[in-house]
Amino acid sequence: MSKKQERSISEFNNELKLKGFNIFQIEKDSYATKAYSRKDFYKICLTTGKSRIHYSDKSYNHEGTVLFFGNPHIPYSWETLSTEYVGYTCLFSEEFLSLSKRSESLQQSPLFKVDGTPVLKISEDQRLFLNTIFEKMMQEQKTDYTYKDDLIRNYINLIIHEALKLEPSQNYYQHQNALSRLANVFLELLERQFPIEGIDKPLALRTAKDYAKNLSVHVNYLNRAVKEVTGHSTTSHINNRIIHEAKALLLHTDWNISDVAYSLGFDYPTYFNNFFKKATGTNPGTYRTSHISTNKAS
Questions:
Q1: β-strand partners of 23
Q2: d(CA 212, CA 90)
């Protein structure tokens, strides 16, 4: 990738984080469709072409027009198989859409759930109608209209409602059984919480209950799946990953212990100190000092 493209991607990401949304047209070989953080942004994509979409444990093979809903907490990837590929992409943060009172129930719809139906086959008439909505959003985001955010939220909700009326795609195959699928999605979701990028963005999912709620399953079912597939408890996986991140933050940032604790989801530094000492046998301050001194000596 050229330096110009890297600058464009950086500018794109900065603008997206600032506004909470971005709508753009997909062009052939467009790198912009991949230039966003899946930790932060939902995605609605209307595309025409030949593609293969991997979503959780499912793979969808399509040729024609599809409407895709990407949840940042569920692993997915997209393979473009045709030489001509066109359409629109809308990216938005949960915070942006949550300003709408109706958004919470919509995000719990089958379109965004782990066992949901994120890919919809679109007819020509439906494509033309949806094209119009995306075009209106693209035009609106360029204006200085005072209430354009509200208007764009309404357009997003309209697309979601239109999708809920459509029949889900059955053109997919599953790779694993239900417990294995859930365990793998949990592990992917766990990894997507890291690395911690800043003190102002602390770890959002801290407990097994947090992950179960996010994945729309009962915590007992999640615990059973993870334990059966991996041999370790959900809490053990979470705590081990937090310890790993805590060590990295202590050694590679200049954040004080309180900042590290808060960024990892602890309300009080003492809770973090006790958690860290139980796992490692030493407290965070001693760990930082001893390892930094060792590195300097070597």
A1: 90
A2: 27
Question: What tokens appear for 252 in the block?
Answer: 């590679």
75 CA to centre of own chain: 8
pLDDT in tens, 3-51: 444 444 455 555 666 678 889 888 654 443 343 344 568 889 999 988 8
User: Which position has the token pair 């109706």?
Assistant: 102
CA–CA gap between residue 74 and residue 57 (Å, rounded):
10
Q: What is the pLDDT of residues 82-117, one digit of tens each?
A: 777 789 999 988 778 876 555 555 556 677 766 667
Radius of gyration over every alpha carbon of the chain, rounded to an integer in angstroms? 21
Question: Which residue type occupies 250?
Answer: L
pTM of this prediction exceeds 0.90: no
All domains in the chain, ordered by first residue: 3-174 (2.60.120), 178-297 (1.10.10.60)
